[in-house]
Amino acid sequence: MLAAAVSLTFAATACTSSAGHTAARTTSSASPAPAAAPALTRKEALARIDHYSKINNRANRSNNRALLDTVEDGPLYAMSVADYKQAEGLPRADRTPYKPWSYDTASADVYIPRIQPGGQRWFAAVTYTGRNHRYARLLVMAQQPTTRRWEMVSAVDLDSKKQIPQIALDADGYATAVDAASATAVTTPVAALRAAVVDDYVTGGTTTGTTVFARTKALTQQIKAHDKTTTKFGARGTTVFTNAATRFEDSYALKTTDGALVVFAHAHRQTDTAHTGWQINPGKDDRAWLGRKGYVSIAFDFTCSDVAAVPRTSGKARLLAYTCRRTAAHGTPAG
Fold first, then answer.
1. Which helix (H) or strand (E) holds 158?
2. Closest Cα partner for 154 from 322, 335, 327, 329?
3. What is the CA 318 to chain-centroid distance, rounded?
4. HSE (CB half, 13 Å, CA atoms) of 200?
5. Which residues 6+ apart lie within 8 Å of 310 measured at CB?
6. Torsion sign over Cα 14, 211, 156, 239
7. Would the pTM count as exceeding 0.90?
8. Residue range 282-307, pLDDT digits in tens
9. Three-state SS for 308?
10. What is the pLDDT of residue 130?
11. What is the 3-state composition of the chain as percent helix, strand, coil, each rounded to the nearest 5?
């Protein structure tokens, strides 16, 4: 926070809460292309989620990063270890005791795509909690190419279980994977979706955010994060958002009855700068990265997972949900 009791706020406070697929190989007319096969069975997928819950609980009890790394990867792992770091920077009296939990796989909806030979194997699931399954979360698990382990790479809370568009299933109940990076496969490729989400923070959606996306609750929340955060210091300082190159460029997409469901990651930076005569004092949640000294400016890096629905033909995409964590921070000390 700024000295003189002006508090810092973060873009993440407004949050609710990969796989490029290889094309079928070219073959001679005498040799048909190998058929795509399901990534795994429903029983196997549910077992992977149960295993994740078990190991995740063990890791979270002691902030065991190495153990967590055996069941998480990508943006989710980056966000989880950031949570660990933030908690470790708090006084012990302020740390919330960990309470074990697990996903209810009995009620989960599982979407398993058919994957071309050589393609990365993955699946998506929607899990439910609460009375009448009020709360829903979209999960993506992928098999890592080197270790062959199945790891959770994305977990995004939904505002409603009705948010997920109807996934197109074949006669055997399997989904179809879509190459979200290809302009011939989706009307709005993932690069455009990612740029539009970043624009929500950088400009309040005035450049591409509201051009690419139709108005949804998630879109409104991101724009509100921009509007509220960039004016929080008044005459005592400034806040600007900028794009940050994401380390996680993989995307996961499933064919729906009217287009595609796309899960992807983005990163953005929030830079707070104090005007002359003021300094920014880190809040308690910042101290794991910044300590207690005052700063002239601080840059916060955020890693986020996003979920969007893309129409089959022309029209705007819909940002359905997202989740963000501050995953790094550094600054210029005052004095």
1. strand 150-158
2. 322
3. 16
4. 29
5. 180, 186, 187, 188, 193, 259, 260, 261, 262, 317
6. negative
7. no
8. 999 999 999 999 999 999 999 999 99
9. strand
10. 82
11. 25, 30, 40
Quickly tell me which residue has 């980056």 as its tokens: 78
* CB count in 10 Å sphere of residue 33: 12
Give the C-alpha separation, 176 to 17, whole Å.
29
Task: Give the model's pLDDT for residue 31.
Answer: 57
Name the 3-class secondary structure at 321.
strand
Q: Specify the pLDDT at position 76.
A: 98
Strand order through the sheet with 113-115: 37-38, 113-115, 175-176
Angle, CA 79 vertex, CA 325 and CA 86 arms, to 5°: 75
Residue 173 — left, alpha, or beta (φ > 0 → left; ψ -120 to 50 → alpha)?
A: left
Residue of 14, 8, 151 lying closest to 78 (CA atoms)? 151
User: How many angstroms separate the CA atoms of 68 and 292, rounded?
Assistant: 29
- In sequence order, what DSSP letters do the residues of 83-116 get, joined into one string? HHHHHHTS-GGGSPPP------GGG-EEE-EEE-
| Sequence-ordered list of residues with C-beta below 8 angstroms from that of 251, at least 6 positions apart, any chain | 18, 19, 20, 180, 181, 190, 262, 263, 264
Alpha carbon distance 91, 66 (integer Å): 24
Distance CA 183, CA 295 (A): 44
Give the confidence band of 204 by pLDDT, cuts at 50, 70, 90.
Answer: very high
Amino acid letter, 192: A
- Per DSSP, the three-state class of 289 is helix
Q: Give CA–CA dist 270/301, Å, rounded.
A: 6
pLDDT value at residue 32: 64
